[in-house]
Amino acid sequence: MEEVLVEDRMKVALFEGRAGREKGQEDSIDKDDILYAKLWSNPCWLSFRINYLALHYNNPIYSMIGADHGLLRPEFVVLYSLFLRNKTTLSEVVAGSGFPKNTLSRASSKLTQLKLIRREKDDEDLRRIVLCLTDKGRAIVESKISPMIERERMMLEKLSPAERMMISDILAKLVIASREWPETVTDPSFDGEGVLYQPKGTDK
Asked: Are residues 31 and 69 in the same domain?
């Protein structure tokens, strides 16, 4: 029964990944290219495409930031979050980034030492500690906005204005929905110690 369920899910996933077609787009890419299989024979098409595109943005952008300013990705994530909305708590930065809290806590500590951010009491709630950009921190983000935007505009070149607005709405919907997703994944086929689970009465 479980095998049938998995097979059905595979069929549905492939059907969606091929946008309702029985096969992938024949003229999109050479069939011998590994990317053809990743695009059209991949039941996990959404995660592959998002990750693949994100790497084409993140790798060059964060390499540039690291080379120019000596900052790691989590550190710039904190800076950019405060650039978009200053005077924000660490918990709020975590909620808007997807990074673990301990990772961003270390990043914010380093940024404080570098005097790129500072901690202040919230004017409206003195019990809250908020993070604020310093002028030095803001200058770093402002110096990188142009290449960040240019990279993204280049990535969108193949899409029409209508397609860009459509994908913006779709991705925003998924980002909002992600707050309801579980943070961990478990495989019921395994017993928690890396051993394949065998129901009673089955061959070992």
From this structure: no
